[in-house]
Amino acid sequence: MKIYKAGADGAKSAQTEAELAAVNAFAKTELTAEQVYTFSVVLCDNEIDRDFEKFSVDALHELAELFVGRTGIFDHEWKAGNQTARIYRTSVEQVAGGKNAVGEDYTVLKGWAYMLRSEKNAALIAEIDAGIKKETSVGCSVSERVCSICGLSAGAGGCSHVPGREYDGKLCYRELASCDDAYEFSFVAVPAQRGAGVVKGFGGAATLGELVRKCGDAKMIAEMDKIEAEAVLGREYQEQLRREVLRLGLLCDPKLYAGLEKGAARMGAAELTSLKGAFEEQLEGKFPPRTQLKGRNAAVKFDGTEYIV
């Protein structure tokens, strides 16, 4: 992720005065241009990241409002001693001619932050200027993760599509929407978003698996690996069950297929199993088992004479 620096040194232009006024909206004492160091940073974007997730453009606009006034720290460690900078304004911008992986206009959320020019911050300022400290991460809360394949919210009993897989040539990913809160931005070593260099934090961890791998011991991590492997098998079974229900429904009545396809996408394994049984029972009446014997529907009489020699 590229950092755009806007130092406060030099002549006080109208733009510098406007920036300083925005900074002083968060300061308890009036700060001068010589006292503050400002820089801008791409916080996040609408590109698909390494977790096969992406922010919607609407989510970026929501975060733009939420991030104003949020603090900058290191590695998402929520300690007062880690507070280094503060965001004083944000902007959602389209990159001219840029497209993301799904063909949408590439859009970024930029934040402008300030810190004091002090002995404590001198080394960090020098590292930012040298391009050493540039990868950042945002910590935020979202209430909805929408599947790109079926449009359903990911979660228990919902979508069974696996992020990162392709379905009929279409990549499955989760679109993050409905942002509830923004916590902080952090300087980090390894970003998840390829373009903006952002690792998202949802209360410190994006998923239960991430939380276990971050905080758990070897035994807990091994158990999580087993659970996730079994979950993959479960999702595959549910997807096979859904396809079978659609096949049986098509045999029962082709007119049902369009509505059934949408309904089946929202059903869990128990509902699909029940519907599959109902379709199978209906099909037994429509297509009863056939015997190869002639006269199968006539009464059969047997008096033993057929065996007289």
If you had to describe this structure to a student in words, what would you say it looks like?
This protein is α/β, with parallel strands linked by helices. It folds into two domains: 3-141 and 182-205, no CATH class; 218-286, no CATH class. The protein is built from seven helices and eleven strands. Strands 1, 2, 3, 4, 5, 6, 7, 10 and 11 form a nine-stranded mixed beta sheet that branches. It has a two-stranded antiparallel sheet with strand order 8-9. α5 runs antiparallel to α6 and α5 (218-252) packs parallel to α7. The N and C termini lie far apart (97 Å). Residues 1-15 and 192-205 have low confidence and may be disordered.
Q: What descriptive keywords fit this protein?
A:
single chain; 309 residues; alpha/beta; nine-stranded mixed beta sheet; two-stranded antiparallel ribbon
Layout: helices, strands, pairs:
Layout: E1 3-5, H1 14-24, E2 36-45, E3 53-55, H2 57-67, E4 71-74, E5 85-99, E6 105-116, H3 122-129, E7 136-147, E8 166-167, E9 170-171, E10 174-187, E11 200-201, H4 208-215, H5 218-252, H6 257-265, H7 269-286
Parallel strand pairs: 3-10, 4-10, 7-11
Antiparallel strand pairs: 1-2, 2-6, 4-5, 5-6, 7-10, 8-9
Helix pairs in contact: 5-6, 5-7
Low-pLDDT sequence parts: 1-15, 192-205
Oligomeric state as shown: single chain
Given helix and strand content, the structural type is alpha/beta
Helix content bin = 25-40%
How many individual domains? 2
Apparent shape: elongated
> Count of DSSP helices?
7
- Mean of all residue-level pLDDT scores: 76
Order of helices and strands: EHEEHEEEHEEEEEHHHH
Radius of gyration in whole Å, from Cα?
Answer: 30 Å
Q: Strand content of the residues, in percent?
A: 25-35%
Distance between the termini: 97 Å
Main sheet characteristics: 9 strands, mixed
Count of strand segments? 11
